[in-house]
Amino acid sequence: MKSIPFSAIERVEVLRDGASSQYGSDAIAGVVNIILKKQTNFTEVSLTSGVTSQGDGFNFGADLNSGFKIAQKGFVNFNLSYLDQNKTNRAGKPGRDGLFGVEANDPQWGDYLKNNPDLGMNIGQPDTKMGALVVNAEYPLSENTTIYAFGDINIRKGTSFALNRTPYWASDPFNLLHDAGTTYTGYHPTFNTDIFDNLGSVGLRTSILGFSSDFSLTTGSNKVDYTVGSTWNPILGANSPTEFNVGGYTFSQFVGNADFSRTFDKVTFGFGTELRKETYEGRAGQEESYVGEGSISFPGLRPSNAFVESRNNVGVYSTLDYDVTDAFLIGGSLRYENYSDFGNNFSWKVNSRYKLNNDITVRASFSTGFRAPALHQIYLSNIQTIVTGDTVANEVTFNNQDPIIVGLGVPKLHAEKSQNISTGITFRAGSNFTASLDFYHIRVNDRVLFTGKIEKDDDDTTTNPIEEILDANNVKSMKFFINAVNTTTKGVDIVLNYKNLQIGDGKLGLSLASNIANIKINGQIATPAILKDNGYDIFDRKEQSRILSARPNTKVLLGANYDLKKATFILNNTYFGEVTWQHAKDPAKDQTFSGKVLTDFGVAYKITNTISANVMVNNLFNVYPDVIDTKGDVVTDLGGRFKYPWEVNQFGFNGTTFTAGLNFKF
């Protein structure tokens, strides 16, 4: 989604019903359809810049959207975008490092901790640069035949920061990261990403035997390469680099579609097919990044973990809509999929709509759906440096095909299956007021989860089979993907809009949008027998909270816009409901972060017919999430490095942000 700039988008459509029987995998809860701009009548240039109230996070963006006609009815629309964003930092300031037992008055590190109460950490948005080109084009070959094409290239570079381990000077005896003879200046490993996205599609819309037909070919890929800096590999001693290419991944797809539809009196019939090939590649890092235990903070991907894996799938579908009367419609769809790696799937859907009158419509649907396990979940394997207890150690992710994982009795990944019930009503009063109310109930079985840490138990006198695997691979803990949990999600969406309310010399528009949802886990986690028998919980309370309570179950947006001559005033208030972080083992250490309201205010002014300006203040009242209460567990906030919640997601913690922009249209 992020690879398509906002300035290239005309509008976004949302299908709220489950749609796997029409579109295949990942459409369990609906579909998002992005409609790109087609205009050719003018060129639009937008310049934006912003900064937080704390003076960091400065950003600058520029967008250009333009187009031109081809012959009489064809067009080409293109969009260029650039963004440069600086980092923000909202790290905690403990003044001591409880995670590694370093007190504020420690004789070796005391001066450093006094001068760097945040332990030299950087917690916030990363340094980012982004450039993108989007092209959208169509050319009519005849009255009934049009060729179309779409292309997108997006390049992003980002720099974030790994965990700063305070007592690290002693582990740098060759002064690779610091000047010899100087006082300790902190250990600040960086984690850089280079991302290249590309997507291209070409298609033909025509009429065949009375059927509206659409043929298309689409190819695209996402490539990411990782670099770690300001670190070293201890086994290489004084010869160690301080920056490493640690490898990367590429995911690509090639898709062919053929779709047909035709209306016969009151019946609309459609059918089609899709052929897809997916490829996932893992590239090894440079040798220095993985030799020995590898580069500190993020060891390189080893040649033994490099891979190129692919799969094919074929899907066929059919849809039927029948207008029983002018007011009453019933419909349904069927889809069959065959994946080369995990097998077949059959999904179906029935739906209905009834117009009570010209202003009130009700609808309902029942559907089954599926989500194919991603190639990433099947084949990803790596080693990462993580915090466990009061130390830092390597944690390995074993892929689903690894003999070790197979030996644990972890089954081959298969598709998640769903049942989706949804119903809704829309209401209109005149041309200015609309309302909608939608209910949904989604049950997903065999969800693919990423296990929690599986590590040694507290009994040092015995070694169980799991500990033998950890010792054999010289790692502290391991993780893997597994189909292991069933969930039910229930919720309601309410949307109200009122526009063109005359207030003084201007017109007021009001909107209210809210979502209230609840999710629960059904039954027990499907833990492999060998792990269960040895007392391992593969999805503990903390991991379960990522599903149950890591995101707000309630969100409400109350917005207003007031148009007064050349000016538009915008006021939005968004309520983000509470979220709860659950401790892995001790419920007494759980924390609920209270719901908060964030206010955004902006003004747009039309200077001339071709020039406009806007100013926006996001989070006007500088609202932050609740501060973490560790309740005595130093790992909860990583020794005070994190001040605000980082394992649950409510809203950002950058505080107030000021943004200004200029738009030129010519």
Automatic annotation (TrEMBL):
Residues 2-31 form the TonB-dependent receptor plug domain. Residues 157-620 form the TonB-dependent receptor-like beta-barrel domain. It is a multi-pass membrane protein. The keyword Transmembrane applies. Its main location: membrane. InterPro entries: Beta-barrel_TonB, Beta-barrel_TonB_sf, Plug_dom, Plug_dom_sf, TonB-dep_rcpt-like. Belongs to the TonB-dependent receptor family. This is TonB-dependent receptor. The lineage of its organism: Bacteria, Pseudomonadati, Bacteroidota, Flavobacteriia, Flavobacteriales.
